[in-house]
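Thread: Phosphoribosylamine--glycine ligase, structure

OP (GT): Posting the sequence first so everyone is looking at the same thing. Length is 429 residues per the record. Can we get the structure tokens written out before standup tomorrow? I want them in the notebook alongside the other entries.
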Amino acid sequence: MKVLVIGSGGREHALCWKLSYNPGVDAVIAAPGNGGTAQVARNVAVKDSDIQGLMALAKAEGVGLVVAGPEAPLVAGIADACAAAGIPCFGPDAFAARLEGSKAFAKTVMREAGVPTAPFGVFADVGEARAYVRAHGAPLVVKADGLAAGKGVVVARTVDEALEALDDMMVKKSFGEAGAAVVVEDALQGEEASFLAFCDGEQFALLPSAQDHKAAWEGDTGPNTGGMGAYSPAPVLPQDKYAETAELCIRPILRRMAELGHPFKGVLYAGLMFTKDGPMVLEYNVRFGDPECQPLLMRLDGDLLQIMLACAEGRLAPDMVRVRQQTALCVVVAAPGYPGSYPKGMAIHGLAEADALPGVKVFQAGTAVKDGGIVTSGGRVLGVTALGDTLAEAKARAYEAVGKVGFEGAFFRRDIGDKGIARSRAKGV
């Protein structure tokens, strides 16, 4: 079977890498792919936003499964187009993809489904939003309603910061039409975790917990990014709490989407905040997180091709998803200036040396092939990922590998996993 993986990030390299080792996969095609996917798949220069082009490619190649990596093609309807063409697609239809494509839609569905989440208001008028902020007080979280590449969220600690965020999104249009409407919600306090589940519209199979690191710099300081590293499992959400947590944030959403006539198929990602009152849902994504995908796939022992087909065809069984008991940790190596403007085209060295270390895989994100070598082409460039019997061991291996790779001005956080290590030590684990 040929598999088409849509996207060009570290998540897509991880997906292509995992699928390429599957005996049931004859070939993996990446559209448009990157320098890493070129090593395990065939890159085809079709943008992930070009639904017509992607469908023409899938039909011409006789693709047996389409895997949508990022959210944009799902929101644009790639799963609907695949359904019309009779091609299985791993990912929800455009209506269900609004769980990520529209923050207002997601919050409304959460409320209807009884999912615990922060109190909120939805506003399309900036005057009404300002009045709400002044009356409600801070701290608040201001979110652009639409897709903003993971960056349309501002945690405002003061009323002035919230008002400035509203002006940026709704008046200055910093995120384009994504900010035409906003969600303003109470800021929750606690530790975050990511909880993902494979879904076939009715049944689900849980992946282990993970924790992302959104801030650019150590100590969770600096500007928000797409993610500077992740690890799995996250001690804040231990395995003995998975089933209970799934009843709070996974099953109710599957039930509600089915009631709305659009059963959710693919990966449902719940971003959780563990507060003093228990877990609360911050957001839903409708695809694998990046960089959470990298450590999760390093741990996955099940047959990814069969899991994805079962999700698409409505025959998922929980025992299909098996994971290694080891821990995995990913450190993102970024270009200078990220998440702002950054240079491109810098030669990357040490990839083979890092990959040769035991239990290590370097996933490429913002890379391209040039003159037979690998150069930078994005802000988040590499996701250096390692397995270990403990979180501390996985961290040590990952950072040893990070020391082998580099490019001009490269930077990374040095504290990925520290919160999990501290929590484990506090429990005597």
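GT: Both are above now. Quick notes for whoever picks this up: The chain has three domains: 2-93, 125-180, 191-426. The first strand starts at residue 2 and ends at 7.
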